[in-house]
Task: structure prediction
Amino acid sequence: MARVAVLIVAAGKGVRAGGGVPKQYAPVLGQPMLRRSILAFANLADTIVQVVIGDGQADRFAAAVRCLDVLPPVVGGAERQDSVRCGLEALESRAPEFVLIHDAARPLVSAAVIAGVVDALEKGAEAAVPLLPVADTLRKREGVRWITVPRAGLLRAQTPQGFRFSSILRAHRAHAGQNATDDMALAEIAGIAVVAVAGEETNIKVTNAEDFAVAEALLSARAGETRIGSGYDVHRFVAGDHVWLCGLKIPHDHALEGHSDADAGLHALTDAILGAIGEGDIGLHFPPTDERWRGAPSWKFLKHAADLLRAKGGKLTNCDVTIVCERPKVSPHRDAMRARIAEILEIDAARVSVKATTTEGMGFTGRREGLAAEAVVTVRVP
Result:
């Protein structure tokens, strides 16, 4: 039983944001906004994540959360309050102690804000909400005049809004149809005492098309660190009529010996990605003693490494593969190799480099006993 449930509300149509898709599935710095909102809670211990989606959004949801550990989605209702109730009722059988209700349109929520909400609940609060003072001067139109609205005591509510699970579920059931704009409002109606915790200016709600540019600028400023990974692989030539290199089957007067298809280029690239994220090497994930991988296509290994990178919230910036051999010639196949690697990694081919060199007749590659491959990657990780 998880101690904390995270309930992400993503059932809206997002019509004000434009772009042709509901805004929660639109990309923010290369990743769907919903995915970024989920990843914000990735370091919260003993947690389950439930997402409430709109009717007909199942395929978009599946693509957005690929490789993330989330529960099957729940379809929401006509209003936000209805959607939250659907999500809470889906979580009831799991009996979490606390629930954090968060808008998918707030992808920049920080670990500090989340920790502040959880800490207040653990210290005995029945509800905890991030709040910020109003900084701007407020005006209200009355006829032809603009009246200044005193801002003393006015606060802006953000999410996640945290509650003891049983209390907020009871409130939603008892006060259905109130059309509360957020769960803090419903808690007040139900008589639940709310504790204020510090919000953050950067925890913006992406509402309009212009907000996407602001969100991307803020994310770029805290985009994480750049890591570099390297990989190296060697295979000997044996009797055969083709080799696999960088995902392509290339006619040749020899084959490459290996437990899988012996694609040295993809093996080196797989190791480079695994190394950049601290996940060991290809042999750890696909042992050569395991018969499941005999003759296996190496693109599966590379895709696995890329999926691990995405699961950590990371992004591949670029990759560079060098094939070391006398034969076969790589240059006639270079563009096709780049395209195939880009397809496997789901990145732009402009981020992929493939090149070749020889050892001028020296060593095992010079004697045409086999070939080698080196790879270097750069990745960005949170």
Residues 209-221 form the longest helix (13 residues). The CA atoms of residues 297 and 330 lie 20 Å apart. The chain is about 30% helix and 30% strand.
